[in-house]
Amino acid sequence: MYASERQDEIRAVLREDGRVSVLALSERFDVTPETIRRDLDLLESEGLATRVHGGAVLGARTSRVEVPLLERSHRVPEAKQRIAARALQALKPGFRGSLYLDAGSTTAQAAANLDTHLEAIGGRAEVVTHSMQLAAALSGAENIALTAIGGRVRGLTAAAVGGETIRAIGALRPDIAFVGTNGLSADFGLSTPDPDEADVKAAIVAAGRRIIVLADAEKFEEDLLVRFASLSDIDVLVTDAAPPQPLADALDGAGVEVWIA
Known about the structure:
Blueprint: H1 3-17, E1 19-21, H2 22-29, H3 33-45, E2 49-52, E3 55-58, H4 69-73, H5 77-88, E4 96-101, H6 105-121, E5 124-129, H7 132-138, E6 144-148, E7 152-154, E8 159-161, H8 163-170, E9 176-180, E10 183-185, E11 189-192, H9 195-207, E12 210-214, E13 226-229, E14 236-239, H10 245-253, E15 257-260
Parallel strand pairs: 4-5, 4-9, 5-6, 9-12, 12-14, 14-15
Antiparallel strand pairs: 1-3, 2-3, 7-8, 10-11, 11-13
């Protein structure tokens, strides 16, 4: 394959997926990572790509760009459904315990399936969330006792943030916390674009007895502005594809179980 043909394919992947990984492209085209980096440098000079650690993102996307919740819910929906279903398998038959559900499009899918899953396993759960979207979806569920945490609600994510929210979470000790993330990398850990959201997520991770992260493969090797947890802070990663080797090695080294849906 000529360099120009390879670069055209990379442009197509960027436009479709919004991001590319140096390692993934190197394997796909059977060329060295250095060759891919030169390709990405060219695309950046054209204004199509913005270089980030481990790859590139489309155009002007940066560590502070945050996709609205509604738009995120339409991205890789089948993957999110598989991840949510696999994550709920952490709740064993007869489960009687407490759950914290983080805000996010994948945790929203888990929330949508939670009552049905509890019914199937003869379980019941005390559920806490700061997500207005999730609270509305779970209200009235037969097998769930729901507590909604208040605070200043961000319109972009429909989630409460701020000191009031963090103090309320800090007084909890849920058996399991299902947590979402915008980025997951070997070097930086778990990250998100907004500092207020990061503070809330950090509080959830500190509070939970068992931390289960729900993240599709698009989040791999993404570093957003604010880190809210290291890999060693989490117990399980539920995802839809095997992580790239550097991330897989880092997860293994941190003692994180990886469940592939």
